[in-house]
Amino acid sequence: MSGLAGRQARVVCRVMMLGAFLATSGCGGKSGGNAATPPPENHVSVEVITARPAPFTEHYQIPAVAEPVQAFHLGVEVGGTLAELAVDVGDRVKAGDVLARLDGEPLALARDSARAALERAQVRVALARKAYARQRSLRAEGSVAESALEDAELAVRLALADRRLAGIALAEAERNLRLATVAAPADAEVTARFAELGAVLAPGAPLFNLARTDRIRLVAGLSEAEVVHVAEGAGAKVRFDALPEQVFGGSVVRVGSVDGAGGATFPVEIRVDNPDGRIRPGMVARISLPGRKVANAVPVPAVALRRDGDTVVVFTAVEGAARPLPVRVAALVDETAWIDRGLAAGTPVVVVGQSTLKGGDKVAVTRIDGREAGADRQAPAVYGLP
Q1: Dihedral-angle region of residue 244 (phi above 0 means left; psi in -120 to 50 means alpha; beta otherwise)
Q2: What is the pLDDT of residues 257-288, one digit of tens each?
Q3: Average model confidence (pLDDT) for the chain?
Q4: How many whole angstroms separate alpha carbon 213 and alpha carbon 216?
Q5: Which helix (H) or strand (E) holds 191?
Q6: What is the mean pLDDT of residues 193-197?
Q7: Domain 62-70+211-293 belongs to what topology?
Q8: CA 121, CA 166: separation in Å to the nearest integer?
Q9: For the residues of 213-257, what is the DSSP string, one character each?
């Protein structure tokens, strides 16, 4: 079933249920409290409105769940004992704030040891170079063999390599000492903590989850028929079940492609500013997203729609008789159907009394656009005035 056909079927199903309810509630009879002129015998009393096209933008109503715009999973890169915990779940932190520290004493000792090893390596380089210079002088005098000079040169190279290794070891030890302090990478909120004070942690052990909640990310799914009408930068209105009194403004930042796992929806990402932190990750959102635009669509009460086989119709009154008109429904918003095909401007549409009409039934129009028909004899004669 195509997207349009599916939408038509869903619209009609909803309309049929609404119409049945209104019929049993007595909403299909005459409106107003004043007595109306009785219709001629064998005529059905109906009320009509005049079709008036208007521009229409369909709004897609889609659910989503609030997510942080950015999440951080922080752990320890070096092992050690957790000596300080500066924050807990729910705390808000600034970029660079200290969150936790490992016991730095073993790491400081390792750094000092690496620094001493580097100093020793530097001394060995100096001694090797001095020995090489002496062997070169002796070789020039012919006092030693060429192999002795080569051995001295090799000793210098080995000493230089040892010094480079010692320098690397010192840099690593200094880095490990710095990593004993865990800091916040951005302004965020602590959403989880995985270790207790005094715990002995292995390298890579998780410590905190942080989330940026100054902006909220919503990912909703649109159908193929809907996604072609949505572009990046489009505005959106967002409501949250937990905050029903407030409407938030959002914007579309990404329109994705359908996934390759047989999915039938296209992901659309919407961002919502959340400077006061009222929106919490996990809250259920209801998004209203502007989509397809129709230049001229006719709004009619949804109860005016009827099903004729596989066709959606409305009834009009022509020369005192009911006539079904096949129409196409662009959208159903609340209790209003927007019709974009099959209904010309100025056409009278039966909105009360249509529930039992059949094509060709004699009708008597009692109200036109909410006014008593008898009060306005200028109404078109084709309406079938009593």
Answers
A1: alpha
A2: 876 555 678 999 999 999 988 999 999 999 99
A3: 86
A4: 6
A5: strand 188-193
A6: 96
A7: Elongation Factor Tu (Ef-tu); domain 3 (2.40.30)
A8: 7
A9: EEEEEEEEEE-HHHHTT--TT-EEEEEETTEEEEEEEEEEEEE-P
pLDDT at 305: 93
Q: For residue 317, give the nearest of 357, 345, 278 by alpha carbon.
A: 357
Strand order in the sheet with 311-318: 306-308, 311-318, 321-326
Inter-residue long-range contacts of 243-250, CB under 8 Å, 24+ positions, other chains counted: 243/278, 243/279, 243/283, 246/278, 248/272, 248/273, 248/279, 249/273, 250/218, 250/287
Q: What is the mean pLDDT of residues 152-175?
A: 97
Which amino acid appears at position 257 of this protein? S
Express as a percent the part of the chain with pLDDT over 70: 85
- Top CATH class of 3-55+297-383 equals mainly beta
Every domain of the chain and the residues it spans:
3-55+297-383, 62-70+211-293, 75-206
- CB-based contacts of 165, cutoff 8 Å, min separation 6: 121
pLDDT single digits (tens) 354-367: 888 888 999 999 98
CA distance linking residue 182 with residue 120, whole number of Å: 32
Cα Rg, the chain, nearest whole Å: 40
Single-letter code of the amino acid located at 325 = L
In terms of residues, how long is the chain? 386
Return the beta strands (E) in 103-187 as ranges. 181-183
